Amino acid sequence: MTFHPSDKPSASDLVAAFKDGSADAETVARQSVAYARTCNAAFISVDEQRAIAESRAAAARWREGRPASALDGVPIAWKDLFDVAGSVTTAGSALYRERAPATGDAPLVAAAARAGLVCIGKTNLSEFAYSGLGLNPHFGTPFNPAFDASVADGGHRVPGGSSSGAAVAVATGVVPIAVGTDTAGSIRVPAAFNGLVGYRASRARYAQQGMIGLSESADTCGPLARTVADCAAFDAVVGGRDLHRALDDLRGQRFVVPTGWQPRFAVTEEVGADFMRFIARLSEAGARVDEVKVGAFDAACDLIATRGWFGSLEAFERYRRVLDSEAAACIDQRVRTRLEMSRDVPTSRLAELLEGRARLIGQFGAELGDATLLLPTVPHVAPECAPLEADAERFARVNLATLSMTMPGSFLDTPAFAMPAGADAAGLPTSVQLMRAQNDDDALIALALTVERTVAPN
Predict the structure, then answer these.
(1) For strand 372-376 and strand 254-258, is the pairing parallel, antiparallel, or unpaired?
(2) Dist CA 402 CA 266 (whole Å)
(3) Distance from C-alpha of 117 to C-alpha of 109, rounded to nearest angstrom
(4) What sign does the CA torsion over 420, 161, 171, 74 have?
(5) Quick one: average pLDDT of 207-228?
């Protein structure tokens, strides 16, 4: 069997073909490598030698009936923040382009390799992972494949960031799974803009060693894929867990929507309409959906708005030495400007915000209980790229709005799934996010599997 990118096979599709012998892992990997080399700036580096070696070993295991895991032989790509042995870890920055290659795999990369996943290469991102829009002047911006500017009104649309290349690699069919990072929305936003599923794991879920960080208190990681099922399978095989199972149905499951969500985040009419249709489908499936005041969520939003984002303060400290050097001139000026905004913030502010965060994480868990918080992922669809490249003030304003609905979840360390909700009149995807209390990942995964099976749009 030959898979073409337009087929966009899921990981489960590939595994079924490997199992019945209708597809060969090495052939699939060779095709993925070829597609990656021409994929719209989605990849910073492609590792053909590793991909062929890993896929050849996986193909042999399938022939012998002893696959390493439920995802053995499936191609995967890694955001270029993760160390992959033999590859330079660039963080999307020209400053790191000439660094020495990594001497070993990050623990999460190594866990995936042990499970037989086949590393195709490293994907593009916003420089230092510090933007929700995905523009990159150093390695190119991978345009959003959900919108064909050659046949539609308007120009290219942004891919979302910072895990831009990861989303585009999946959306175009190069790989069925790509791993990104999420500090304020960097998995969920590109998943939303590209019509994908993105899973932001609680911070304690995956090892973060061997990964260039941005905010030591907010960084986490997780997969982007076409389905919740593929994200769940990734979580299981890298964590040595049994495969997750969906619930029998949604009857009795409770979802809460924070009051005032639409005006608070300036949600556009089409995004709001798709969200309400999604809620209606949940109700029709037997779920209970209540619009209620969630005090901890509201307080987190207010704290971010009035006292700032603690991730920005930690990001500035991480890159202060670079910002104080001549090398600062080489940084994407949009990223540099955003980093510099934290320079004059009092040093006491970080401790204040982290103390408030710890308190609100506990309060949120108590308020939410066994319910799931439901919101749109982003208040608007993917914006046009060219106006953002031309106008720094517009870029800053749109970037903040883009991250506004994902930042509260990051503040509260909620495990979260971004899932497709529908599309606007131009065909651009809209998205909904499901959030649970910190470390309630297993329950969230089971619920998201059930939502996907029961009410997700076709």
Answers:
(1) parallel
(2) 11
(3) 9
(4) negative
(5) 98
Report the distance separating Cα 278 and Cα 455, nearest Å. Answer: 7
Q: Supply the residues annotated as catalytic.
A: 79, 162, 186
Q: Which one, of 115, 130, 151, 142, lies nearest residue 331 by Cα?
A: 130
The pTM score is 0.97
Query: According to the model, what pLDDT value does residue 353 have?
Result: 98
Number of residues that make up the chain? 458
pLDDT tens digit string along 363-401? 999 999 999 999 999 999 999 999 999 999 999 999 999
pLDDT tens track for 72-88:
999 999 999 999 999 99
State both tokens at 180: 């990104």
382/370 Cα distance (integer angstroms): 32
Contacts of 393 (CB under 8 A, 6+ apart): none
Residue 54: helix, strand or coil by DSSP?
Answer: helix
CB 59 within 8 A of CB 73: yes
Q: Structural domains in the chain?
A: 5-239 (3.90.1300.10), 254-439 (3.90.1300.10)
